[in-house]
Every structure is written in structure tokens, then in C-alpha cells.
Amino acid sequence: MNFEQLRALLAVVDEGTFEAAADELGVSPSAVSQRIKALETSVGNVVVRRAVPCVPTQAGSVLLRMARQVALLEAETMEALGTGGPGQAILPLAVNADSLATWFLPVLDDAAAWGDTVVRLRVEDEAHTSDLLRSGDVVGAVTAAPQRVAGCSTEKLGAIRYQPVAAPRLCELHSSAVAGKRVVDWARMPVLRYGPKDDLQNRFLREHGIEVLPPSHHIPSSEAYLAAARAGLGWGLVPEVQMEGMVADGSLEILGPRDHRDVPLYWQVWKLGSPRIERLTASVRGAAEAIIALG
Amino acid sequence: MNFEQLRALLAVVDEGTFEAAADELGVSPSAVSQRIKALETSVGNVVVRRAVPCVPTQAGSVLLRMARQVALLEAETMEALGTGGPGQAILPLAVNADSLATWFLPVLDDAAAWGDTVVRLRVEDEAHTSDLLRSGDVVGAVTAAPQRVAGCSTEKLGAIRYQPVAAPRLCELHSSAVAGKRVVDWARMPVLRYGPKDDLQNRFLREHGIEVLPPSHHIPSSEAYLAAARAGLGWGLVPEVQMEGMVADGSLEILGPRDHRDVPLYWQVWKLGSPRIERLTASVRGAAEAIIALG
């Protein structure tokens, strides 16, 4: 096993094909292929399933994680030795879409000043980001689960507060005044979901005693989801931090003032004593001050 | 084969699990399971691979497409007969992220007024949306390929014009003045990619004679990609329609005034004589007037 082989594995998994990996490494596809085969011979296992995209096998996942750690340690050791070296280290990170659309953005501002780090984001549901950490796909992740992934540290970041909101026109269509109070017809008002994995609204509806769910639109983009809510396509649970001013200006109405849902978020990252990871963690922690504190 | 079985297949594939499908249909998971088994017996083939998420087999894909067409025809026939019926018909659509972030949004405004249609968007690279049409996952798609999918009509929508842009600070760092003209150091200036499938920037760089690609950050969200460009994390190809005012206010600089890239987009949709599909097509066509016309 050598560094070149591990770098080839990283590139194949990250880029998805041997050709794209060759581009990334500035070598020929057959050189990539030879390195992968040599790696497989040395560990006695197939490491990558040749598909589109290429997927690491179980043995490949174990190597992948090591490969990322070695790449980072190599870059930082070279720097400490003053030998220059590759200079750029790759930090693959997983973040949920609502975070990337809101409080996480200042991390990109910070990263712009680093110069020595390449940021590769993966967007996943916060319930699934820790899987990417476990499989060695990313070095750090914003997750919904406090359960520590082996070899990682975990800390509370805060919570995104989701408010149930709808455009006033839609509200009016699906609610009635009962004894001076507005009662929302949750069983009929159409609902916005991010996609099939998004269970936040359905759980909300079940907690309101709704058994047969109303029609649900799927809008798999944080910004488009908000736009759809404002357009009156359906009601949705929208991050409070994303809708500033929109209640005040009358484009959105909060459907129940005590009906918000707080989704706690954690930061999980490899323990590696790497200055880049420490700097990244400080940046994520600073950005998370924009969301609400967790008790 | 009956309607109930086809509806069960649709729900299992769209929701991903038998449990979520049961929720969607308002029946028990075992009822869903029985319907799928009965469907498999009647066609003599396994239709769904039981995984997380559930994936249709090849036979399942053929049925899936029919199931969506039948569901739509059923809803519209019931309406024509004045018997009310399900009322809501589901329109699964595929759209690329940059379209959803820009010109496609007014389609959601239109959809908010329809009332009889549930919109389920899938976000995919425009080179891959036609696969979703072919596999029966969606009824309509914004695609990069003019090749007609069997059973679908296709029309030109226009093109998204991408401008190579960067924050002025980054520009300055990676360009030099040669004989009064700015020369960008494409080999070194870090680049923003949407993700590993995004080849737009790499092709651009190769056309500028760059063999070894510069460090590339991955930012898989249209809005965050734009934010990263403005933050100076890297240069990127940004839809002209998305950056209005940002060149004028000095937050972004166009790197080469004649270096834009036009990505043509097509609308492909099932031929089904369905009023909902015709209305949708008119809405998409209207929204596409915001992008540049194709010759």
C-alpha cells in the first residue's frame, strides 16, 4: 500500500469514474486503474465496485477513511517541515440543506480566506449525514444525532427552529374562526415536503391527530421550498432564521405561535489533531451562533 | 392487475418504504405488501427490489410509467364525469438545480393557483433528467438533451447563459495585467464546482488549455454556489439570470466578457392529451421567457 494508491482510491470515489479521477490527478486513466489494482492486490480485497458512479466496497470504505486522514496529515506534515508540498488539503464535509441555505454560509466566507483548504460539501438530510462520516466519505458533518461516530468528537451546535407557515391567502382558504380563534384545517391544507425522506411535516400532522395526510408537494431545495410557501402552494415548516421580515411584511403567516419545532444539530468531526480541522470547527461553531442555543 | 395495486406500486417507489407508502395511502403496511405481491403474481415478475429506498425492477419501471399515466387519466376522467373522485393528481417533474433557483420559480406560483395538482420535484443534473423520464419516475423534465424520449414530446425552452465570475479580491490575486489587458491565471485560481458530476468548469478550463486542473471546491446548492463565488472561495460559472446587479454593485466580476457558456434546455413531457400536462407545459414555456432564446 502506498500514498499514490490511496490518492487514486480517493479520486475514484470522489469523482465517480476512473476517467474523472485521472483528470483530477493529472495522470492517465490506465495509471489510475493500475494503482487501484495494486492496492487491491496488497490488501487482498476488491476496494471499488466498478459502476457509474464507482462505489467503495466495505474494505474500500475502511481504506477510504484512512486515505483521507493520510492525505490531510501528509499536507500538514509537509507544511510543518517547510517543504511546501501539495499545499491544498481536501476537506469533504456533509451538511443538511437548510443549514447550507442559512447559518452555514459564513463558513464559506471564512474558507475563502484559508487558501490552503479545498471544501467539498455533500448535502444530505441531517438524519443521514453521520452515515457519510461513518463510511469515510466526509471528515466532518452537521448531524441530527448526538451518537458519536467512532474516532470522532461531537459537540452541540444549537437548533434550527422551524415555524409552520403559509401564505395568508392559503391560510384563509383552509382555516375558520371558532370562538374568535383561528382553527387550521390540517387535514385539507396542502403541505410542502422537501422530498420523500422529509418526515418533519408528517410527524407534525400526526401530532395534530391527522391520520390521512393531505396532498403533499415535494420541493427539494431550501430556497425553492420557501418560495413555494410564499406563493401559497402549501404550508411548510420553514427555518425561522430563513424567513426574517416575511411575517412582518405579510408574505407569510405563522399558523400556530406555539407550534414550532426545534431540530437540534451537532457537529461531528474526526479526532486527528489537525490545525485545519480545528480551524474549521471554530468556524462552524461561530456560524452556529446564529441559530438558537440548546439547553 | 388493478388500480389499487398500481397505486401501491407508485406509493412504494415515491415514498421509498412500505411503511411510508402505507401512510401516503392511508392503509396498513401489510395491505401495501399484499397489493404489491398480487401485482407481482399477475405480471409474473418481481416489481420492486426491497431495499432502502425501494427501487423498481425493470418490469417495475414499465409498470410505474403506466401507473402514473393511469392515475392521471383516472383523475381527469372522474372530473369530466363530474363524479369528483380523487381530485388531486400527482405530477412528478425533474428539473436541474440552476433552473429551480432561477427561471423555474414562477411555475410554482402558477401551481399554487391550480388546486387540483400535486407537484413533486426531483432535482437532477440536466444531463440526467431525461433518464428519470425514461424510467417512468417523472412525467415531465427540463433536460439538456433534445433527443426525444419515446412517448414524449420535446420543445426548446431557451438557454441559461453562464458567466465566468469571481469576487474582485480573488480576481486580483490570480490575474496580471499584460499590455494593459487582464490575463487570468486559470491554472491556479481555485474553481467552484456544483459537485463531481458538474463538468462545466472543467470543460471551460480545458478549452483554455489547462491540463492540470486547479483546486476545486464542491458546493452542491445553486444559492450557496453563488454565495461562495461572492465570498471569494473560487471562480465559477454562474447563471446570468441569477446574478442581476452583482456585477454593477462590484461584488462579482466577469472574468472574460466573451467567455460565457450557453446551456440549452428542452422541455420533455408525456404525450397524454391531459389538460393538467397542457397547463403545466404552458406555465413552463411562459417561465422560460426569462432565459435567453435559442436560435
UniProtKB/TrEMBL annotation, chains A, B:
SUPFAM superfamilies: Periplasmic binding protein-like II, Winged helix' DNA-binding domain
Pfam families (alphabetical): HTH_1, LysR_substrate
Cross-referenced InterPro entries: ArgP, LTTR, LysR_HTH_N, LysR_subst-bd, WH-like_DNA-bd_sf, WH_DNA-bd_sf
Keywords: Activator, DNA-binding, Transcription, Transcription regulation
Molecular function terms from GO: DNA binding; DNA-binding transcription factor activity
Domain HTH lysR-type: 1-57
Family: Belongs to the LysR transcriptional regulatory family.
Protein name (database record): LysR family transcriptional regulator, chromosome initiation inhibitor
